[in-house]
């Protein structure tokens, strides 16, 4: 097995580990008698912990050659935290374990991005990002089907043990990536080495330079709004079903994940193709446009069949952005030596939105109803699209392809 195959395997098995229990957590806690607001709050607190840690963790990935070890430690931490939640699902304990999960999960994206960039360099980055995301989503489909089946036949507790198994194979995959195949200078977006050159010639720029990088700031704020509108939708769909008493919650939650993830696989490959041929601007437009429509549909569906178009739209948005976010960040910061800390900064802003979303939506769902919460999320998502299109002159030149010429032609 070569290092690229191991990277593909890492993306497949890590899919079920990175976010901990994901949407299953809300259903698990609801069955333990938690209210929507309590569930949203604990998810938000855990998300904030990850958000605070993301930029420093990105800097760690840029500065260290122990990227494989980082992945191993993160996997173990997520599993230990999740198992503690299973046996002691009290509010203080769950807040603490979600904080650990959030922090450990926060390092996964920059670490995998760094490993990928170090293995394939900038020229092969967009293509391999598409493959990374395709394997990631395939892993999510497998995990949702197998985990959902385990939850259906043996109870939600079985999902915890299934995730531990996935983590074990993720650790095996990352350890089979050959250290000598990783160019750690290229991995942080510094000047790529010539053949046979082992010197580190790329000097990282000041972190303060990130705060004056207009395309990076627009990207970060756009993603913050997108994830503020997006993060709560899937957990809220599961909770809405439980509230109506319609169907088995494990099977329903798994079905919502499967529909979305199956859509994400072709979307990830399409995003890589569009990025290479037309640039990242159009990829973001397509992704951002899908979320307001998804929120409106989620607010108006009356039965479980409605989850199909709702979750297909989730697959469109997440599948495209999974490739476009690290890809565009690497383009914006190419040559700076700060690609992963820059990606961490973008993810911090993204985390602000994602962490706030469950508490925001849970509060509205409890005080008003679920439909109103979905409409509110859709309105926020529309702001992200408006901002991105309005800032085309700023972000367009960094996007490459057709978008690069668009601002000049305007």
Automatic annotation (TrEMBL):
UniProt keywords, alphabetically:
Membrane, Transmembrane, Transmembrane helix
Pfam families given for it? Answer: MFS_1
Domain (Major facilitator superfamily (MFS) profile) ranges: 1-396
Keyword Membrane belongs to the record: yes
Q: Tell me, what is one Gene Ontology molecular-function annotation carried by this entry?
A: transmembrane transporter activity
PROSITE patterns in alphabetical order: MFS
Q: InterPro entries, alphabetically?
A: MFS, MFS_dom, MFS_trans_sf
Where would one find the signal peptide in this protein? none
Transmembrane portions of the chain: 39-61, 68-88, 100-120, 141-174, 216-238, 250-274, 280-301, 313-333, 339-361, 368-389
Q: Which PANTHER family match?
A: MAJOR FACILITATOR SUPERFAMILY (MFS) PROFILE DOMAIN-CONTAINING PROTEIN (PTHR23539:SF1), MFS TRANSPORTER (PTHR23539)
What is the protein named? Major Facilitator Superfamily protein
């Amino acid at each position: 097995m070569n290092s690229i195959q191991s990277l593909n395997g890492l993306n497949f098995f890590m899919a079920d580990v990175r976010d901990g229990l994901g949407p299953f957590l809300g259903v698990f806690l609801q069955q333990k008698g938690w209210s929507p607001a309590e569930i949203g709050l604990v998810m938000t607190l855990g998300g904030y912990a990850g958000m605070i840690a993301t930029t420093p963790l990105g800097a760690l990935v840029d500065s260290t050659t122990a990227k494989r070890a980082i992945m191993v430690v993160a996997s173990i931490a997520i599993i230990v935290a999740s198992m503690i939640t299973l046996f002691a699902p009290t509010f203080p304990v769950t807040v603490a374990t979600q904080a650990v999960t959030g922090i450990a999960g926060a390092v996964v994206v920059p670490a995998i991005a760094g490993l990928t960039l170090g293995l394939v360099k900038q020229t092969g980055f967009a293509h391999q990002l598409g493959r990374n995301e395709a394997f990631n989503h395939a892993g999510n489909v497998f995990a949702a089907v197998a985990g959902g089946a385990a939850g259906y036949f043996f109870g939600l507790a079985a999902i915890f043990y299934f995730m531990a198994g996935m983590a074990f194979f993720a650790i095996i995959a990352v350890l089979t990536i050959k250290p000598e195949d990783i160019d750690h200078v290229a991995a942080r977006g510094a000047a790529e080495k010539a053949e046979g050159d082992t010197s580190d010639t790329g000097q990282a720029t000041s972190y303060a330079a990130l705060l004056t990088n207009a395309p990076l700031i627009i990207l970060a704020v756009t993603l913050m709004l997108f994830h503020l509108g997006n993060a709560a939708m899937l957990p809220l769909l599961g909770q809405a079903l439980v509230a109506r008493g319609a169907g088995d919650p494990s099977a329903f939650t798994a079905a919502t994940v499967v529909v979305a993830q199956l859509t994400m696989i072709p979307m990830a490959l399409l995003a890589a193709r569009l990025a290479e041929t037309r640039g990242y601007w159009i990829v973001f437009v397509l992704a951002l446009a899908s979320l307001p429509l998804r929120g409106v549909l989620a607010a108006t569906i009356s039965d479980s069949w409605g989850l199909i178009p709702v979750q297909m739209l989730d697959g469109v948005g997440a599948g495209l952005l999974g490739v476009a976010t690290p890809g565009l960040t690497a383009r914006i910061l190419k040559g700076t030596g700060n690609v992963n800390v820059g990606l961490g900064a973008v993810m911090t802003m993204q985390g602000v939105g994602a962490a706030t979303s469950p508490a925001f939506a849970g509060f509205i769902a409890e005080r008003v109803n679920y439909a109103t919460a979905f409409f509110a999320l859709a309105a926020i998502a529309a702001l992200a699209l408006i901002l991105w299109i309005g800032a085309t002159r700023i972000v367009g030149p960094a996007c490459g392809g057709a978008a690069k010429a668009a601002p000049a032609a305007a």
